[in-house]
Amino acid sequence: MVNNHRREADQNPPLFFMCFGLFLVFCLLKPGVFQAQKIKNHYVSSIQQKGTLYFIRPQKGFKNKRAGSSFVYDMTCFSSSDSVTLNFSYFDKNSRTLDSLYLMAGSIKTGFPIVKIFIETKKSRWHYRFTSRVSLNELEAFFKATEMGTMALMEKQKPIPLTSTKRRWKKYAAINTRIFQLIRHNK
Predict the structure, then answer these.
(1) Dihedral-angle region of residue 33 (phi above 0 means left; psi in -120 to 50 means alpha; beta otherwise)
(2) DSSP assignment letter at 49
(3) Cα dihedral across residues 144, 180, 117, 169: positive or negative
C-alpha cells in the first residue's frame, strides 16, 4: 500500500515556507521600504558647547541633464539653532556666475543667497563650492512636501533647474525628514 499523504505534502509546501518565500521576494524588490528607518549611516553627531552638532553626509542625485551638470550637497546643524548650513558642490561644463539657490516643492518656493567657498577646474568641468544658511523650518518643509522637490541655481536672474529621480527623492526626503525630527527632539 502506497502512502499518498506524503506525496501530497511534497506537492504542497507548508504555509510557513510560502510566506517566507514571499517575504524574501518583497525584501529584494523593495529595499527602500526598510531604508527609511536606517538613518545612522547618513549623519554624524557630536556634542559641542552650543549643543549637539549634526552633520548630514553628502547626498547626490540632483542634476541638469541638458547642461550635463550635477549637484552634491551636505548639511550641518546645531540642535540649538533654527538654521542649517547647506554646503554644495556644483559641477558644470560652463563657467558660471552663481548668486542664489532656490528650493521648490509644490507650493513651497524659497530662495537663499549663496557664498562662494572656491571655484576650480577638474578636467573639462568646473567645480563650484558654495555655502548658504537655510531656515530649518523651510528646509524641513521642502523635504516633507508631498510633491517631488526640485532645486534651481540662479545665474543673473536665469535659473539652472536641477531635478532628481522620483526614487532618489523619496529616499533622501525620508532620511532628511527623520534626521530633522531627531534634531528637533534634541533641542
Answers:
(1) alpha
(2) T
(3) negative
In terms of C-beta density within 10 A (0-12 exposed, 13-18 middle, 19 or more buried), how is residue 156 classed?
Answer: exposed
Angstrom distance (rounded) from CA 164 to CA 177: 17
Cell 500500500 maps to which residue?
Answer: 1
Longest dimension (CA), the chain: 90
Number of other CB atoms surrounding residue 186 within 10 Å: 14
pLDDT tens sequence for the chain (187 residues):
555 555 555 555 565 555 455 555 454 544 444 444 589 999 999 999 989 999 999 999 999 999 999 999 999 999 999 999 999 999 999 999 999 999 999 999 999 999 999 999 989 999 999 999 999 999 999 999 999 999 999 999 999 999 999 999 999 999 999 999 999 998 8
Residue 51, burial from CB neighbour count under 10 angstroms (0-12, 13-18, 19+) = middle
Task: Give the three-class secondary structure for 64.
Answer: strand
pTM of the model: 0.78
Q: Distance between CA 20 and CA 94 in Å, rounded?
A: 53
